[in-house]
Amino acid sequence: MQTTTGLFCYESLSGSCTRYARPLSIQVPMFTAMGLAILVTVMGNLLVITSIAHFKQLQTSTNQLLLSLAVCDLLLGGFVMPCSAVRSVQGCWYLGEFMCKLHTSTDIMLSSSSILHLSFISIDRYFAVCRPMRYKLIISNNTVWIMVATSWLVPAIFAFGMIFSELNLKGREVFYETNVKCVGGCQVFFSPMAAVASSFCFYIPGFILICLYFKIYWVARAQAKSIKDLSRQVREADSGRRARRGANILAIVVGVFFACWCPFFLCLIIDPFILYSVPPQFADTLVWLGYLNSTFNPIVYAFFYTCKNIDTKSCHLPTRPFYIKGELL
């Protein structure tokens, strides 16, 4: 529960949540930083969507995963983050209980969907780099559509089902009613069981992501070594440079993902077991750190990858980090 500041979200109502007594000198920079994050998230993902829609050579089955991810992150930046910004700065929610549940459900759904998309992209890259001869057979249009549908439906069922049925409160109802619930608040609350279940939305896709990208890294390294052994001296230097670039991209992909989401999910799973002693402001900061993953996604997955053959159908905007027409990037 928020600490008492002497101000209330609704001054005339009994049981109102307390409001943060932040001066304008703090509120303005906070709103500016959050507004900038929202703008970059919306514009970056909108640019990815527009690029794939405009360039026919980018309209491949593989890039449907990127397109779906960009739509997910765009919705998060356009609809969830603005409401969260007001709540984060003032500590109050003025849109009512139903809208609070809708916002919370959408927040959990889109964040989980974004994470799930990243794991499916790692699966796609695994087959493209490590099983290239079977790639077209396994990663067909139908497979991609199943991945996209799963990335949306599973988080939606989980998030809306849990919040609107109040399964997130199960086992801690009395504590929530006594210590957390108040008029004008919209704090996301998880019982220990709900926190563990929600954490699986991160740990399982995260485990898939890190395992597959490490496998991709080692396969790409071995292939680069083979090329180096069979090539001339001039080609050796070029292949080494490209191998290092591929390894750096993988480190960025995995590093950004875990840097953004690990702190929040560690806090999520620990907080119920330490009697919810994590300060709300700190927990909210970790939520925004997770949001930034949607800000960085179009940069990491799209603009980090260069495309040599933009006029060929073999070019995939973000999903061919190692090979285009058999050539190591």
Keywords:
single chain, 329 residues, mainly alpha, Rhopdopsin 7-helix transmembrane proteins, two-stranded antiparallel sheet, 9 helices, disordered N terminus, disordered C terminus, receptor, GPCR_Rhodpsn_7TM, transmembrane helix
CATH topology: Rhopdopsin 7-helix transmembrane proteins
- Class from helix and strand fractions: mainly alpha
Shape: elongated
How many strand segments? 2
Which stretches are low in confidence, meaning pLDDT under 50 for 5 or more residues running?
Answer: 1-5, 232-237, 306-329
CATH class: Mainly Alpha
> In angstroms, what is the radius of gyration?
22 Å
Helix content: 55-70%
Strand order of the largest sheet: 1-2
Largest sheet, in brief, is: 2 strands, antiparallel
Instruction: Please state the average pLDDT score.
Output: 82
Number of helices: 9
CATH architecture: Up-down Bundle
Separation, N- and C-terminal Cα atoms: 51 Å
Could you state the oligomeric state of the chains shown? Answer: single chain
> What fraction of the residues are assigned to beta strands by DSSP?
under 5%
CATH superfamily: Rhodopsin 7-helix transmembrane proteins
Family: Belongs to the G-protein coupled receptor 1 family.
Keywords: Cell membrane, Disulfide bond, Endoplasmic reticulum, G-protein coupled receptor, Glycoprotein, Membrane, Receptor, Transducer, Transmembrane, Transmembrane helix
InterPro entries: GPCR_Rhodpsn, GPCR_Rhodpsn_7TM, TAAR, TAAR1, TAAR_fam
Domain G-protein coupled receptors family 1 profile: 44-301
